[in-house]
Amino acid sequence: MGDSKRLVYWIRRLSEIAMYGWLGLLLLFDLALGLSVGPLQWLVFACGVAGVVAVALRRRFRVQGFAVLLALSFGTSVLIGAVGFNGVPGMTETGSLLILLIGVLRHVEPVRRAAALACVALIVLMWEAHGRDYQSSSLVFAFLLFAGWSTAAGVGGYLRFQQERRKEAVHSVRRAERLELARELHDLVAHHITGIVVQAQAARTVAEAKPEAVLPALDAIATAGTDALTSMRRMVAVLRTEDDADRRPGVTLADLRMLTDRFSADGPKVAFEIGQGIDDRTLPPEVMTTLHRVLQEALTNIRKHASRTAWVEADLRRYERAVVLRVRNYGTGPDPRVSRLGGGFGLVGMAERVEALGGRLYAGPSPEGAWEVIAEFPLT
């Protein structure tokens, strides 16, 4: 999976280099036109240079660069048309506008603003064809520019559609995780309150016969109440839904080890190590539950997306102010059938749960070439 990410990185870098290479060739063509057509054609060349700059700065000044280039292009077309100069539409200028148009339609919020900018771009391109009527070829230029605009608008709209689908899927995953956290919050608090009620009834029963036993019972009740309040503060407070999921007040370290043993039985071997200073009383119940979920999701992802994994290392360690779960898989290459697919929603759900408890989640390649998932929880 690390190789896959490096491949995507280099594909993006090469596509950027190819794009600037094409713009450079178009700029040379505009330079040749400036030398052969006439003096005002140099304004078109200047618009092309401005377009390249706007493309280079598009991630920082997407709307501003697009608006400036639209204004320069429109002003140049009006001036050339007003003096009756036999000008030619700029290749670099038009290419830059179309590249920026794709980014605007994909990223600018809200969508009506992006659509409005796309319509302004169409007007500017059509005016470019009309104002720079080289040897009465405005109709041909208009057709070509409209075809280019339609293609760019279609690509940008499709990318926007895919991005919105992704956002909606991520939102659904996060909402499901919050509902699951709310269900677990209910179970944890119910577990603590049940203990409080039982200890209060016991204290009342022995109050008359053994008054000295009341104080320890009250201390236990106060501790259970404090734990319940801590769980309520640390977990996400959202409405819970009715479902048929298995309900437990929490998990133990034995459950984590059992999970790795089941995975090792019919998959790659897992070496799971629990560091010193960690036992079932060390971590809050909500952290234990989330650790179980993160470990389960990480192992599931290995089974689904890294079927050729040689072995898996998992360890849970306690540091001064944090507890860290690390899951690594070695000796694997990306499955080409899976690499072409989108996804990552399991990671979104894990991150939602970890961050709800004030922690951090990292998933990606390690310096040693393994793929690792690291979940860090603060200890208070």
Structure write-up:
This protein has 380 residues and is α+β, with helices and mostly antiparallel strands. The chain is built from eleven helices and five strands; from the N terminus they run ααααααααβαββααββ. Strand 4 and strand 5 (371-378) form a beta hairpin. The protein is elongated and about 110 Å long.
Strand elements, count: 5
Count of discrete alpha- or pi-helical segments spanning 4 or more residues: 11
Largest sheet: 5 strands, mixed
Strand content: 5-15%
Helix and strand content put the structural class at alpha+beta
Contiguous uncertain segments of 5+ residues = 236-249, 333-343
Cα Rg = 31 Å
Assembly classification: single chain
**What is the strand arrangement across the widest sheet?**
1-2-3-5-4
Helix content: 55-70%
Quick one: overall form? elongated
What is the H/E string? HHHHHHHHEHEEHHEE
Distance between the termini: 35 Å
Average pLDDT rating: 80
Q: In a few lines, what is going on in this structure?
A:
The protein is an alpha+beta fold.
Topology:
Layout: H1 2-36, H2 41-56, H3 62-83, H4 91-107, H5 111-131, H6 138-206, H7 214-234, H8 253-265, E1 269-274, H9 285-305, E2 311-318, E3 322-330, H10 336-339, H11 345-356, E4 360-365, E5 371-378
Parallel strand pairs: 1-2
Antiparallel strand pairs: 2-3, 3-5, 4-5
Helix pairs in contact: 1-2, 1-4, 2-3, 2-4, 3-4, 3-5, 4-5, 4-6, 5-6, 6-7, 6-11, 8-9, 9-11
